[in-house]
Structures are given as C-alpha cells and as structure tokens.
Amino acid sequence: MEEEVGQVVLLGLWGSGRCTRVALALKLKGIPYKYVEEDLTNKSELLLKSNPVHQKVPVLLHNGKAIAESLVILEYIEETWNHTPKLLPHDPYQRAKVRFWVNYFDQKIASASYTIFLSKGEEREKEIEKMSEIIRVFIEGVKRDLGDNFPYSKGKSLGLLDIVVGTQACNYKAAHEALKMEVIHPHTNSEFLSWVDALKEHPTMKETLPPHDKLVANLIEKFGPLN
Q1: Sign of CA dihedral 146, 147, 148, 152
Q2: For the segment 20-55, what is each residue's pLDDT rounded down to a tens digit?
Q3: Cβ distance 183 to 172 under 8 Å?
Q4: Cα(158)–Cα(111) distance, rounded to whole angstroms?
C-alpha cells in the first residue's frame, strides 16, 4: 500500500500504547486519518520504507513524508496543526516541564511495567515495589512542577502528559487481570490511579483505548503464563 499525497496515515498496532497516543492526539485535534494495522511478524514494505532505522510502529505519514517515534510524532502534530486544543502550554518553561515528565514516564514507568511482565515470583513483587516508588516520585514532581494544570478533571482538555499517561496507564486493570495481581498499588499510588481513572472517562480517550478483554488475552499470549 502507498499513501496518498496529502493524506494522513497512521501505521500502528492496536494494542500498543505508543500507537494509541498518536491516534488519540489526531482525534483530539480533529485531523482525519487512515489507520493501517501492521503485523510486526511480517512487516509491510511501507513500514520498512517509512522507518528503515527502527522498523517499528507508530509511523505517521503526512504529505508523503514519514515521521517515526511516538513522542516525535506528537510534537509534529502539535506544531503542524497548532489550533486548539493545545497539547502543550504556551509558556516555554511549562512546556519544558511537561516534556521532562513525559520523558520520565516513558523511561521509568513504562519501562518498569515491561520488566514486571518479564519477571516472576518474588522478583516480580520486588519490581512492583520499585515501580510504586517510581510512581510516587512522578506524582510528587508533576504536582510540584505543573501545579494548576494537574490533575486532569472532567471538562478540561487533554494535554501531552495526559495523552502519554492515559494511553498507557488506563489499561492497568487489564494488566492486573492478566497477572492476577495488582501491578499498581491502590493505596500507595492512589493519586496516580485517581488521575488515570479520570482520564479514562474522557470520551475520546474511552473510544480510543483498546478493548479490555482483547488486551488481557493479548498480554497473556505475548508474555506466556503470567503467574
């Protein structure tokens, strides 16, 4: 398949939080796009041509040009379609703070989640405790640095950090079900879960997230026996 010039095309994978974040940003901005589901066990020629370095999704195709890496794509969307709703604050300092915590989430929390799925027994319990502390640092930092812009509440527009956190963490119940244990502690990380649960109620977030049961089955299939 070749993309049409002027058409926005998203190459993605239905269960990928990084692909979902791009789809969500496009929807929030009201940008029509065509979605193409990729099979990473049999990568399309379009994907290999569009992202020859990493050969991964997501990839955004716009005006015949390919943009790879989800955070790069989100910045591209914000700069190219700079109408409201804005994904980033106007103030440069606040934008820098949002970017810092977006990167922290991807590098620390998302990475820790993956490690939990790969571990077993006592090692998994230790990894869950580590992630609980990482989340605590994250929430305290976001509250300190973003102030009035945190947390999301009904009626607010979703910002870049909401998009990144929500498309990954709103699936936490699927992870709990697949693992048959709590990955995120509701007591020690209550503020984080309250934020995530509020994000999940946003209509566009809700319609963009992958189906719960399908995701549970996919996690079990991908990582094998999880208990």
Answers
A1: positive
A2: 999 999 999 999 999 999 999 999 999 999 999 999
A3: yes
A4: 23
